[in-house]
Amino acid sequence: MKPTTVLLRVAIAAAFAMTTSAYASAAVPTKNIVLVHGAFADGSGWKSVTEILQKDGFTVSIVQEPETSLEDDVAATNRAIDRLDGPAVLVGHSYGGAVITEAGNNPKVQSLVYIAAFQPDQGESVLKLINSNPGASKGVAPSADGYLFMDPKVFASDFAADLPAKQARFMSISQVPASVKAFTTDIQSPAWKAKPSFAVVATQDRVINPDLERSMYKRSGATVTEVKASHAVFASQPKAVAAVIEKAAQGK
């Protein structure tokens, strides 16, 4: 057999092996899911989504970020990701979208999921996005020491209109205020520019304008699902939200 023929066959075999290996790797779903809550909420809101994902065989981690600054919240998210034994899908709700946009640069993160969340570009902050296309709610107010909270009197109507009244009341008194600093810090390196993203538009959202959600997700080329829900879609529509996360895990 001629040397050139041997070399050609080796090259073809190597290429086939690499293609097969890459296909097999892509076909294996990511089993780790990391959930990041947004402002005016905490990690307990992910309870129903978590139960669905765990039932379907996923390992779920919930980040209880302090919301003292974007840097602190990214660090808390990376702390959770670094403990995992393999790749992960990183999911953020609301302000959590800004957090995952930076934390998503962690090499273990395979894809990003934005649930009625901000998806800033480089040089954008949450506040800049809000001012570009404000939501309907006027219930957010600052504290004397530089934190933002949602008035409990309008929390149910503006944040969680499709949740049972008792659950919405509990969420209103257990909310985690976000620092003004967290809302005004610009994104430095948007992970969605290098990794696939998926997104849920909450069509009845009063906190983030649904049209702002649509424009951000169109800009990033995200795979978008629209759900008839309030800003609390992660709690009110857990099946729909879990389905999007599972699609991201499967690379669909």
What average pLDDT do the residues reach? 91
Classified in CATH, the superfamily is: Alpha/Beta hydrolase fold, catalytic domain
CATH top-level class = Alpha Beta
Q: What is the helix content?
A: 40-55%
Shape, please? globular
Tell me the strand percentage band.
15-25%
Tell me the number of structural domains.
1
H/E series, N to C? HEHEHEHEHEEHHEHEHEHH
Strand order, sheet with most strands: 2-1-3-4-8-9
* CATH architecture grouping: 3-Layer(aba) Sandwich
Count of β-strands: 9
Question: Given the structure, what is the number of helices?
Answer: 11
Radius of gyration: 20 Å
Q: Termini distance?
A: 44 Å
Helix vs. strand class: alpha/beta
* Poorly predicted tracts of residues: 1-27
> What about the largest sheet?
6 strands, parallel
CATH fold group: Rossmann fold
What's this model, at a glance?
The chain has eleven helices and nine strands. With 252 residues, the protein is an alpha/beta fold.
